[in-house]
Amino acid sequence: MSQTKKLLIITYYWPPAGGPGVQRWLKFVKYLPDFGVQPIVYIPQNPTYPILDLNLESEVSGKAIILKNSIFEPYQLASFLSKKKTKKISSGIIPNQKKQSFLDKFLLWIRGNLFIPDARFFWVKPSVAYLEKYIRENEIDTIITSGPPHSLHLIGLELKLKLNMNWLADFRDPWTTIGYHKSLRLSHYAAKKHKQLESRVLNSADTIIVTSKTTKTEFQALTNKPIAVITNGFDVEKVAKQTLDSKFSLAHIGSLLSERNPKILWESLVELCAEIPDFKNHLEIKLIGAVSQEVIATMEQFGLTQYLKSLGYVSHSEAVEHQRKSQVLLLIEINSEETKSIIPGKLFEYLISGRPIIAIGPKESDFAEIIANTNTGVFFDYSEKHKLKHTIQEYYNQFLEGKLESHGIGLQQYSRKNLTQQLVELLQQH
User: Among 367, 30, 121, which residue's Cα sits nearest to residue 22?
Assistant: First the structure.
């Protein structure tokens, strides 16, 4: 671009927020100035982030202009009922439906039916008033809204109606087809309202950005607006060379929700412990991040907790270290039609770790294709236990020989800088 273009980015997740939601726009903002774009980032002044990672604050580009406006979030009120449950629901950890208490059901009903599209919708009106003035005074012609939370797209919708500016709606995850949506105990009215808002956003934005091909296909049935796929990616990480774990460690990094409970993996490990004399002496299962109680209970039933190393949430830099030193990386997605489109953000960091990936998910998952094309691991659907067990055994044999590693190909297409260039090319069309 010959002259600097101003781009207003409206996002909820921003450092010191931790977790996957913050990475996408933190990295786009890092590289946008290299392509002649001035990023102006609008974020909440006093958000309720379920996870914090203070280390990420040092990664915010010094060239970004940061705007903050106060937000009211009902999670602050709901936490007096149960701070722990409220925090879990706000971070997407929803208890198994069969095991939900009355309080679980009550909080989910409130979340799904009173706060549409989500509990951040109180931020829409003050944000529109604040940004309308700022946009006029600073001659900004393009905005991007990033969801979830999808209420941020309603800010874009209002600004589009008032100012008729260029608006790109970025969907890091789908809206009404996301896995947990059906767990929110929606009334008929609430479900219809979600659909209506989704349709208005998809048909009012100038361009839709999605992170997977399946989401693009879903949205094409709902709108004629142009839809671009820009996946998540990996960045250049300053991580010291890691010494590999001495154990045959299988590491899952990220939230392991109730429905993301891979019994075919637990069964395979139990059988290998019984069949291979030394396997149990080498085995270590590393779970890094929030883990639901149902997953721990299942592992107890299988007698696997003796091999479990549960580290809880760690900083992003520590997570990257574990990606580089674990023997095998696990990628687990819920076995449902709705999750075929989900490409976990950590996949792209996994790709460049040099460690082989074992991925389990629904048939025809979008991330299965990426793993196959980059030669970084093996994908299994939930019916392929025999193949999964065989691959674990193969990896174990390579581990014993000191030859277990991954040889990825074509990875550079997923670098954050290359993905930012794709975004800039999209902006040049407006």
Answer: 30
Q: Are 245 and 365 in contact (CB under 8 A)?
A: no
Give tens-digit pLDDT for 319-377.
999 999 999 999 999 998 888 998 988 999 999 999 999 999 999 999 999 999 999 99
**DSSP designation for 150:** T
ω into 16 cis (within 30 of 0): yes
Query: Which tokens hold the place of 414?
Result: 């997923």
Distance CA 14, CA 52 (A): 10
CA nearest 331: which of 318, 321, 342? 342
State the pairing for strand pair 166-171/5-10.
unpaired
CB 298 within 8 A of CB 332: no
Separation CA 207–CA 170 (nearest Å): 9
Strands 283-288 and 142-147: unpaired
The pLDDT of 297-305, averaged and rounded, is: 96
Hunting for tokens 């429905």 — which residue is that?
259
Bridge partner list, 379: 359
Across 199-235, b (16+ Cβ under 10 Å) vs e yields eebbebbbbbbbbbebbbebbeebbebebbebbbbbb
49: Cβ–Cβ under 8 A, 6 or more apart, which residues? 13, 16, 17, 18
pTM: 0.86
Where helices occur in 142-286 by DSSP H, the ranges are: 151-163, 188-204, 213-220, 263-275, 279-282
Q: Is the dihedral of CA 298, 300, 306, 309 positive or negative?
A: positive
Distances (CA, A) of 136 to 36, 142, 159, 272: 21, 12, 11, 65
DSSP 68: E
293 CB-near residues (< 8 Å, 6+ apart): none
Cα 273 to Cα 285: distance, rounded to the nearest angstrom: 13
**Residue 95 in this model has a pLDDT that exceeds 60:** no
